[in-house]
Design the sequence.
């Protein structure tokens, strides 16, 4: 164990490892959206029906946020995270296998049953079960490893990393598959191998708490633990207090707004650029440019994630006002994202104006990520994984609604396989108005008022 008087910096290596995990989650999710044409062709179904596959993922992602958050609070993030990454990687690999192993349909009593499509929906549901625990357990790990003054920055860095990989995935896909010669199935297998390597590194380096890690010294442990209670064992989760707390309910409503609007960027935007501006698909340079623009909102969102996290923490350090320190920056982000979507609705046939507007949507949407997830830690404290899981669960019910609405609007405006521009006008106008609801939701959130829990007994063997 390091006995230096200066704090060691093991917490930053933990943050780096969690950032890579966040990147893997977005790589896997964005790949599903980008490969949807190949996936649906393999199961012999029209690509317009892919929103049912996305819906299955989002329902599972929503329903299992709290259970997997509880597992992280109860058993520690180390075991929970490792099992979840292995789980979702295995089910992600079913996507390229279903079209090879199972027939597209079978006939039962004269009726056709699209068995491969149903299995695809099942695999996507189970994939969502695994990914549901990623960010609640990352939040719990950050709570264990970082002092309260750095939580917003740490959360912003996590979301920066996730957006970075999500933004690069369209380009990565073009380079590996469309220009590099890999099949879409081989690309899936390559991404799974990357996750397997990460699991090995995580197993040997990560620990649940700083005091369990042999590379930390007492100075770093004291820095992290300053101002917080000793590590305690769970004797029972106060579910009623959590689920009836006004802050938690308002966080849930707020995050429904984010997820209702945001998944268009991950699942639909790369295809939107290809469909709206087909002349750019005629050259390799044009394909690369469209891929970059399709991922640009998440790449630009990286800056929003980091800046929102830095500003919310800086404001709180200077003023001591945690209520407005979380609130004011998130409200600004929501309002500006709404304005950008309403502007994009007017320029759906102008490549560069449209691209800039959607990029700014990504920036301002992600501006709110640091304040939002840091507020879960402020409110939930030692139950931060459960609180953040609750917020993300209800938020992803908003994503289910958003995907259904998006899929149905775009399908209604699809003619001969092409989506008419008016469909995007309707969609973006709706998104802009929904963002303004998020501004109102933040007026109900007060991060300076944590849930009042009874103090449990310290765990045996801890200070």
Sequence:
């Amino acid at each position: 164990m390091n006995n230096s008087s200066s704090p060691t910096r093991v917490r930053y290596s933990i943050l780096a490892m969690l950032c890579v995990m966040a990147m893997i989650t977005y790589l896997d999710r964005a790949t599903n959206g980008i490969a949807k044409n190949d996936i649906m062709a393999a199961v012999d179904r029209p690509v317009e029906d892919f929103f049912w596959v996305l819906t299955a993922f989002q329902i599972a992602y929503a329903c299992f946020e709290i259970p997997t958050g509880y597992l992280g609070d109860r058993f520690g993030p180390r075991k929970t995270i490792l099992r979840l990454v292995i789980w979702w990687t295995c089910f992600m690999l079913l996507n390229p296998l279903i079209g090879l192993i199972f027939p597209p349909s079978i006939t039962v009593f004269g009726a056709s049953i699209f068995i491969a499509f149903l299995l695809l929906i099942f695999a996507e549901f189970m994939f969502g079960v695994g990914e549901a625990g990623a960010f609640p357990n990352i939040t719990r790990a950050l709570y264990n490893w970082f002092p309260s003054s750095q939580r917003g920055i740490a959360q912003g860095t996590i979301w920066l990393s996730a957006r970075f990989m999500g933004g690069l995935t369209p380009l990565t896909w073009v380079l590996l598959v469309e220009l590099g010669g890999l099949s879409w199935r081989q690309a899936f297998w390559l991404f799974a191998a990357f996750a397997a390597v990460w699991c090995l590194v995580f197993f040997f380096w990560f620990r649940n708490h700083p005091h369990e890690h042999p590379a930390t010294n007492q100075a770093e442990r004291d820095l992290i633990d300053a101002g917080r209670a000793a590590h305690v064992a769970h004797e029972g989760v106060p579910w009623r207090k959590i689920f009836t707390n006004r802050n938690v309910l308002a966080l849930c409503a707020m995050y429904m707004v984010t997820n209702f609007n945001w998944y268009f960027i991950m699942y639909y935007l790369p295809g939107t650029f290809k469909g709206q501006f087909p002349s750019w698909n005629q050259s390799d340079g044009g394909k690369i440019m469209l891929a970059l623009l399709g991922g640009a909102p998440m790449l630009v969102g990286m800056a929003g994630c980091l800046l929102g996290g830095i500003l919310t923490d800086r404001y709180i350090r200077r003023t001591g006002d945690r209520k407005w320190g979380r609130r004011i920056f998130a409200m600004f982000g929501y309002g500006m994202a709404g304005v950008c979507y309403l502007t994009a609705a007017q320029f759906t046939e102008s490549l560069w104006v449209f691209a800039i507007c959607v990029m700014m949507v990504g920036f301002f949407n992600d501006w709110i990520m640091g304040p939002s997830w840091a507020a879960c830690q402020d409110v939930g404290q030692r139950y931060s994984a459960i609180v953040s899981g609750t917020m993300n669960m209800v938020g992803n019910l908003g994503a289910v609604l958003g995907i259904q609405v998006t899929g149905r609007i775009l399908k209604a405006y699809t003619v001969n396989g092409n989506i008419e521009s008016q469909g995007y006008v309707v969609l973006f106008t709706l998104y802009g108005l929904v963002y303004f609801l998020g501004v109102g939701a933040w007026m109900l959130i007060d991060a300076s008022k944590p849930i009042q829990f009874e103090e449990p007994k310290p765990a045996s063997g801890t200070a």
Q: What stands out?
A: The chain has a mean pLDDT of 86. The first strand starts at residue 106 and ends at 108.
